[in-house]
Each structure stands twice: as structure tokens, then as C-alpha cells.
Amino acid sequence: MTVDEALAIVETVLDDDEQLNDVQELIFKQSWEGRQSYEEIAKISKYDNEYIKAAGYKLWKLLSDACDEKVKKSNIKAVIKRYLRRHQVTLHRTQVIGVNLSGANLSGSRVLFANLSESDSSADLHGAIITDNKTASDEIIKAEDAHNQGILSSREERIYHWNDLRFHSQEQVKIAEALDRTNTLFFPNSKARLTTPAGRQNQEPDFLIFHQGKWGILEISHPDTQKDERRDRLFASHGISIIHYCDANRCTEEPDRIVREFLDILSQG
Asked: CATH number of the domain at 160-268, please?
């Protein structure tokens, strides 16, 4: 289970007025990734140690109340897994959380994490999480038929919405907000059609940005992603030679600084 999947589960556990703020989400992510020290988390953030400690105390209390067991930095993964088992929710390798709604009354409700892979369409997932009249993220699937069964969705990726734009991660949203504050022209997740050695193909940079008469690409680098030098050379052959990769954690913690640095690079290139 990835940290983003864990956060998506937390969103369903908490009430609308209890959703995590940016600092709590930062602490959750860093704790999930194995950073057990508040001092260590403070060093990689813009907040001081005491503020991180206070925010962490509130975070674990909030999750403890919601999950009905004590939550702390060292056991957060185990607690989330136990929560899934208690509510009979399973996480498949396709990174889709699947639930079966056989026998459930879905009238007027929305179903959280009701995505089923085709191989699991007949699974019995009685006890699915149901929420009435809640506003949730794109994992929510509208139940238009109370007796509808089978595959509800094959979506394998979480989508974030901001100003009628679609993003693949919260880090992308942070960068989009920072770019917006600079009044810069940008295209997020815009597919381009290029000629490659293998023929015509689609390529999708995170951000295509226009600044002072020049085009550049800003990419967000996650631990599980690698720099695609072959693709970068393709863009360079079409005149977009300034391609900058930024760490995902920095995008969360200091998006405005990253945008300023990129625009400086673009203006000088």
C-alpha cells in the first residue's frame, strides 16, 4: 500500500470537518515512509520542531479516535491494515480498492473505494464503506442503481481536481497553485504527439510552461520514477530543451520556491 492510498483511506475514515491539513498530511507521509523522529521531519519542512510535535499530537489523537485504537508514528501502517480487515475492504495489486455491494442498500448514497478489477468482479465484499451525502475525492463512485452489482469502475489512479483541471498527485496541485500565483501560462499533464524512433507516440509532461518567450517542462520526481532521458531528447529536438526535475517532497513543502527557481532557469536559458 502506498502512502497516497493510505491517505485516501484516512479521508474516508474522518468526517468532512476533520480532514487533515497540510502539516498533518506531511507528518503522516513522513511517518509512513519511516521517519520516526519529529526532529527529522522538521528538518525537511519549513516548520520548527515544537510546531511539528504539536501538530503530530493532534494528528495521532484524531486518527486514534477515528480508528478506535491508539495510533502513533510507529504503528500507523498496522492500524490502517487492521482497519481495512475490520471493514472487509481489500487492496488489490492493481492499486484499486475493491468492494462488493451485494445486499447493500445504496439508495441516495455514494460508495467509497468501490473499484473492482475484472478478475474480482464476483468477489463477496459485504460490509462496504457507505457514506451518505458526503463530498469526497474521485474514488467516490455514484451509485445510480441500488441493485447494481459487478464492476463499478476500473480506475487505477487517483485524480485530484483544482480549478477544473485534473492532476495525478497532490504535489502537482501544489505546483499548479504556485504557478498560478505568478500569473504564468502553463499546461498541466498535456499530452503531446511526437515522432520517436518507434514511430508516432504520445508523451505527457507534468507541466509545459511558457515564460518570457520560452517553453520549458517541469517534472515532479517521485522515488519510484526515473528520469526519461530518451523522452527529454525528443522534446529537445522540437525546441523544448529546458526540462527540470524537482523532488516530490520539495514540491509539497516549498512549491513557490521551486517555481521561482524554474522560471529563473527558463528566463536565462
From this structure: 3.40.960.10
Angstrom distance (rounded) from CA 217 to CA 194: 15
For residue 66, what is its C-alpha cell? 477515528
Give the whole-angstrom CA distance, residue 154 versus residue 263: 38
CA angle 145, 151, 153 (to 5 degrees): 90
Nearest to 128 by CA among 88, 94, 173, 168: 88
Of residues 225, 249, 251, the one with CA closest to residue 30? 249
| φ/ψ bin of 183: left (φ > 0), alpha (ψ from -120 to 50), beta (otherwise) | left
Distance between CA atoms of 113 and 153, rounded to whole angstroms?
A: 10
Q: How many CA atoms lie within 13 A of 71 on its CB side?
A: 25
Q: What string of DSSP letters covers 169-234?
A: SHHHHHHHHHHHHTT-EEEET--EEEEETTEEEEE--SEEEEETTEEEEEEEE-TT----HHHHHH
Supply the Cα-derived Rg of the chain in whole angstroms.
Answer: 21
Residue 208, pLDDT score = 96
Closest to 26 measured CA to CA, from 14, 15, 35? 35
Residues of the chain with pLDDT under 70: 36, 87-157, 269
> Domain-by-domain residue ranges, the chain?
3-86, 89-157, 160-268
SS3 98: strand
Cβ atoms within 10 Å of 268's Cβ, excluding its own: 9
Nearest in space to 123 (alpha carbons), one of 115, 133, 131, 111: 115
Tell me the pLDDT tens digit for each residue of 141-199.
Answer: 333 333 333 333 333 457 888 988 989 899 999 999 999 999 999 999 988 888 887 78
